[in-house]
């Protein structure tokens, strides 16, 4: 039984490629099928091989009439390849038999021939037939014809099962008028809908081995110790025929209730477990948010947390359970989270810094040296008094930090105000501050129309329109603007160079902070004669 199924499986696997609606016929030890798929000779030959056969050979009168039946009973038109090919490149003197042609199987034996033209052939040709002209027509093998005819060897047949059955053969065609049914064919028998497989000339009823066509099961096949059984999806049960499934009678089986279902006769009602309520659709269950009830968690510093189907009470952040059910303040300072001072508060804590320090905005736990005046004590290494640190914008001398007067080095274009550790640039009336402390004439001041630079307001006009209507005024504006830009550039270069000359450490405005927190030992410092690094002029 197992070997037989294996054989059937081999046939079946060859026939798994879906074939275009075809008609077939079986007699003696062959089945024939007609395929309405356009192909040249080699593609047609390949297609038959893929189905486990070859292009059709017509060696007897009997096969010829089978071919006629096939062509006439099927709904096809056009030319169809036969399995006859002339591969010689020389003229043979033969006009009888196959005229030097060979069947695709490689032999040239025949009891029959039906040439359209009896002449000898001198170059590569192939043979086709059509419904209207069933004589053998020689033509170029490269031609694309409407289809082809295949043949399959088969030795074992089953008898027809019932009167009206349709058989799905392993050769890619389905037929309902086969007198002999080749092994590997399947059919469904009415009225029960039992499924049958022809194995070694005998029908077996499904479910057969799950590995062959899923045992013939409609849904799924399962191999158990007892054999093969068909199984059905939830809400369905297996039918009498053992292969198909139909819906269960219990209305709950297909009710689609998310949690619970109660049925009575043909009606059902869905229900939900504790902590859930029925959704408006009558099937789904949704979580109840118990925390909307303010009395869910009573007690000081307690917090309600909703969970799926329930809720829990826990202590608010900064509080912990004292093992007696109360939430008490946590002394966060015990773990030393602050760099300097820590003060515990109810539910939280507060960091602060010692004299001369402040908390940086990015981390309130830390403390950084801070100097709110122009002169502060330096942060010196206790072991090496020559190593003192100052905040940004200060310079160290002995044990003191002195503010750097950035204004003195021309850091701003127009107005400069020195502040502890930094400086602020501003511009005179009618000017506007841009990057690097530079002031430019404020073009946006005054009424739009009278200003010659108005045409350069970025949003004033779309660029295309601007080019099209470039007036004399605009041209003048462009020129004035270009001149101002060049002047500004020259001025900038000049300022920078001047600064570099007088103030070697400065490389540009961007690097003003290079001064910050530098550890300058006294010898280096001495090369600057003046504490404020004043201009030499
Ligand atoms: C055969 O072809 C004709 C016309 O093309 C069509 O009306 C008929 O339904 C076809 N029959 C089958 C069995 O395909
Ligand atoms: C036949 O057709 C196939 C594809 O349809 C193509 O790949 C092949 O080259 C053709 N062969 C000849 C000999 O024309
Ligand atoms: C055979 O099939 C035809 C059409 O499918 C149907 O009308 C007829 O009743 C069937 N006969 C039997 C015996 O099942
Ligand atoms: C810490 O305490 C000070 C003074 O009471 C207050 O200004 C500051 O906002 C507090 N900081 C935090 C993080 O609570």
Report the biggest beta sheet as strand number plus sense, adding barrel if it closes: 8 strands, mixed
What's the total count of β strands?
Answer: 40
CATH class of one domain: Alpha Beta
Reported CATH architecture of one domain: Roll
What is the tally of helical segments?
Answer: 6
Give the proportion of residues in helices: 10-25%
What is the average per-residue confidence, as pLDDT, rounded to a whole number? 79
User: Which geometry do the CA atoms define?
Assistant: elongated
CATH topology of one domain, by name, is Mannose-Binding Protein A, Chain A
Low-confidence stretches: 11-21, 446-472, 498-537
Strand composition percent = 25-35%
| Rg, Å, rounded | 49 Å
CATH superfamily annotation of one domain: Mannose-Binding Protein A, subunit A
Category from helices, strands and their pairing: alpha+beta
* Beginning-to-end CA distance, first to last residue: 114 Å
Q: Which molecules are bound besides the chains? A: 2-acetamido-2-deoxy-beta-D-glucopyranose
